[in-house]
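Researcher: Good morning. I'm working through a list of sequences from a screen, and I'd like to move beyond sequence-only analysis. For each chain I'm collecting a predicted structure so we can compare shapes side by side. This is the next one on the list. No need for commentary yet; just the structure.
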Amino acid sequence: MSANLFEGALTERTIFKDLTVLSPHYVPEALPHRSEEVKKVVKALAPILRGEKPNNVFVYGKTGTGKTSVIKHVIRHLTEAANAEKSTTDIGIVYMNCRIGFNSKYQVLLKIVEDPYLNRPDHKERPLDGRTQMKLAGMSPTDLYKRLRKTVEANGIGLVIVLDEVDMVKDVDELIYLLTRINDEIEQVEKDGQKKLGRVVIIGITNSFSFKDKLDPRTKSTLCEEDMVFRPYNADELSTILEERIKIGLKSGVIAESNVALIAAYAAQTNGDARYALRLLQKAGEIAQKESRDRIKKEDVIAAKTGVEEDITFELVTTLPEHQQIVLYAIAELLIQGGNYKRLADMPPDILFSGEAYEGYEKACKALNRTPRTMRWFREYLNDLEMLGLVTLSVSGKGVRGNTSIIRLGSPPAEVKRILQHSLGLK
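Model: Good morning. Structure tokens for this chain:
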């Protein structure tokens, strides 16, 4: 009898024993170097367990600084506390990543009112009626909002809504204004012999430090939020994080401490990004495993760095909002062409002035039949791109084009243009 085609594949795992622990979605029981942040989030949300309304929480920080992991970790413990035998608190959690399918007010509201928790059989006024199976899709945002308010009010629910990458919501102003105003309309009810007051709490997670600056003053006035900023990890902290994951996810003795330190050093140079460090570790392991070796060499780490950076650039660029993609495309195209303006003798060829970049953006919008945004929005897009590490910005200084901004691209222009040509449908 011939051998099974998969027998060889089953013996190829010379490096890994559990790849899930290297995933960005894995939330460990312990979060090294984030204990203070955990305490702050716990303190901010604790009032909800006493039937009180806590402030909304907004968490800021660059990619890979542990924002989502900390929030999910705390939410897991909050759920356990609410489900404890002696607890009389009715708490629901709705989590969504706004970059993936929930980037409008309507999509976010629909996701909330369709959540299984709000539609539990024991809940009154549940949005999705168990008898009629009323369809919610197609209803107006106003009607979805009314159904949400009625369910929260009728059952005295403490509803925690986690909006990861909240800055990706197109009409985020209107969404936040609605969700914060709902608490002003909810009235106290009697349930199980106790008086209960429903409340809605928002936890916003964002990479954009300028997120609140874009909000309407009316929205800002309703937020009542607590802000938390997560600093990047340093090399020593990243080494600790890697070592904890290696114990669980890799076979014993497959990587030397010196190579763990090298991965941590690379990641520390890339905005202190723990996700980058974990991807680099996984990629290096895959390279070693592909060559049927049982140890990760320094050369594997170096080779993995190039591959991971290309993957990250592609992922970041293709998931940007359309106008940010157009801005980035215009910058890449101009750098390839040498810019619109005559180069100054002492200016390097890898920079652009913000004025010429904006002209390139307008030209790209015309080619795509899009209406260009104002210079104010253009500057916001540049700030967001810098925060993601896709560009770097600096001020030219007096005497150079009126103290303008200087733009450098974070990746090779030809690579960025190639990715965006496909993403935007340009030839």
